[in-house]
């Protein structure tokens, strides 16, 4: 991904946004981010998910189906609060740099 250092925060916000809507898992999140133009490998996404969980923005549970298990992530109250703050900050930023038409 070009300009990765600038866009890394957007990836975290995308993850948090989807996790606030419902449970997400790694493979689905990689595919969803690809729809938005982000190309992440599992080696990039899973450490990001784990870091968000360690910081208290996500919580996880294991879902078992037969012999397979999937780790599902969901936003915590702290994650939803952080997302609300980010939305306000993004709106302010957009006012400054957005299209002036």
Describe the structure.
The chain has four helices and two strands, in the order H-H-H-E-E-H. The chain has 101 residues and is α+β, with helices and mostly antiparallel strands. It has a single domain (4-97), classed as Winged helix-like DNA-binding domain superfamily/Winged helix DNA-binding domain (Arc Repressor Mutant, subunit A). Strands 1-2 form a two-stranded antiparallel ribbon. The longest helix is centred in the C-terminal third of the chain and has 21 residues, at 77-97. The protein is globular and about 55 Å long.
User: What is the level-2 CATH architecture name?
Assistant: Orthogonal Bundle
Radius of gyration: 15 Å
| Overall pLDDT metric | 91
* H/E topology pattern: HHHEEH
Low-confidence stretches are none
Q: CATH homologous superfamily, by name? A: Winged helix-like DNA-binding domain superfamily/Winged helix DNA-binding domain
How many structural domains are formed by the residues? 1
* Number of helical stretches of at least 4 residues: 4
């Amino acid at each position: 991904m070009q300009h990765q250092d600038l866009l890394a925060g957007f990836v975290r916000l995308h993850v948090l946004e989807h996790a606030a809507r419902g449970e997400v898992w790694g493979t689905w999140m990689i595919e969803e981010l690809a729809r938005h133009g982000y190309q992440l490998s599992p080696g990039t996404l899973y450490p990001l998910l784990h870091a968000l969980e360690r910081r208290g923005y996500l919580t996880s549970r294991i879902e078992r189906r037969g012999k397979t298990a999937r780790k599902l992530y969901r936003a915590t109250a702290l994650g939803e609060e952080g997302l609300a703050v980010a939305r306000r900050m993004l709106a302010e930023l957009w006012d400054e740099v957005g299209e002036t038409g």
